[in-house]
Design goal:
binds zinc ion, oxidoreductase, Rossmann fold, alcohol dehydrogenase, four-stranded parallel sheet, ADH_Zn_CS, 331 residues, zinc ion binding, zinc, Quinone Oxidoreductase, Chain A, domain 1
């Protein structure tokens, strides 16, 4: 990954040579357009990161196909790992360490104000002035608001977590959404009752489901995971699911799901809170050598493949397609 040349004036005007490149999604049925961003102005507390690898969340594919409503133009993408290339003033990572140019980081899918009533009551994911990466229309002051780009401008109020250099990008990129959502699921289950010795049911083998299975198993739960595909069942076993049944055979094999409490949320789910991202990163860093997180990511393409990546993700939502930051020419 080449970061290129970055210069910053005292007013936090950042000039990028070569220009940053954002893959702008105009709307349903239209191809992404690469848009050059030669410079941006960082507000105090903001950070510019160079994306190393972004992954396609099923939600991105739903937006692109029109299955879920979103108005373009938007730079999609809210799961990535990257490196800090510029900061406006001192900015701290979660846990208090100062970020510096070159820091390798993952960041939350949302940025919240930290001051409103909802933020102060631990519900920053519902902040009244919430910013969501990969969801907002391209604006003059936020052209680099999604991960399907060479760079992302991190707004103040983003939870930024330092990650070590030796962990593969495929392991780290999905944490911002899938990992944090898994931590939120497990936290909600723990609030009902401690997980040790409980039997819990998890449906499917999305990255979110498998990470939640691993976390619940680590907390001492017996995880019953249902999945129709035999290869995916094998993957689930490697994430610590102690009983993995074909959901079409529930009840006929003696395992059943009776008595197993489903911990997967029904329907819409709130975005995760900062503590969930921090917990997910901690857990993945503790377990990545044993658990095959890298297998979440299937095919990896360059940014110019974003339309293909979204189509592929729509047809196979369980495997995350990766988008690597490579320079492409604008035609
Ligand atoms: Zn997502
Ligand atoms: Zn707020």
């Amino acid at each position: 990954m080449s970061v290129g040349h970055v210069t910053m004036s005292t007013e936090h005007e950042v000039a990028l040579r070569p220009s940053a490149l954002a893959m702008v999604w105009p709307g349903v049925g239209k191809k992404h357009e690469p848009v050059a961003v030669p410079g941006i102005a960082l507000a105090p507390g903001e950070v510019l990161v160079s994306v190393e690898l972004a992954t396609v969340c099923p939600r991105d594919a739903q937006y692109a196909s029109g299955a879920r409503l979103l108005r373009g133009p938007v730079v999609l993408g809210h799961e990535a790992v990257g490196r800090v290339v510029a900061l406006a003033g001192p900015v701290r990572a979660a846990g208090g360490r100062r970020l510096s140019v070159g820091s390798r980081v993952v960041w939350s899918a949302t940025a919240s104000c930290g001051r409103c009533g909802r933020c102060r009551h631990g519900m920053s994911q519902r902040c009244v002035s919430l910013h969501r990466y990969g969801h907002e229309r391209v604006a003059r002051d936020w052209q680099l608001g999604g991960a399907f780009a060479t760079h992302v401008q991190l707004r103040k109020g983003t939870t930024i977590v330092l990650v070590p250099d030796n962990v593969p990008a495929e392991v780290l990129a999905p944490i911002a959404c899938a990992g944090a959502a898994a931590a939120a699921i497990v936290e909600a289950a723990e609030r009902e009752a401690p997980l040790a010795k409980r039997t819990v049911h998890i449906a499917g083998t999305s990255a979110r489901a498998l990470t939640a299975a691993a976390m619940a198993a680590d907390a001492g739960a017996r995880v019953l995971l249902t999945e129709t595909d035999s290869e995916r069942r094998e993957l689930a076993r490697r994430f610590g699911a102690v009983a993995v049944v074909d959901s079409q055979q529930i009840g006929s094999d003696g395992l059943g799901t009776e008595g197993a409490h489903s911990i997967m949320p029904q329907g819409e789910q709130d975005a995760a809170a900062p503590r969930h991202l921090v917990r997910a990163v901690d857990f993945v860093l503790k377990t990545w050598r044993e658990l095959p997180y890298d297998e979440f990511v299937g095919e990896v393409m360059g940014l110019e493949g974003v339309d293909d990546a979204l189509r592929l993700a729509a047809s196979e939502p369980r495997a995350r397609v990766g988008l690597r930051n490579e320079r492409i020419d604008i035609v």
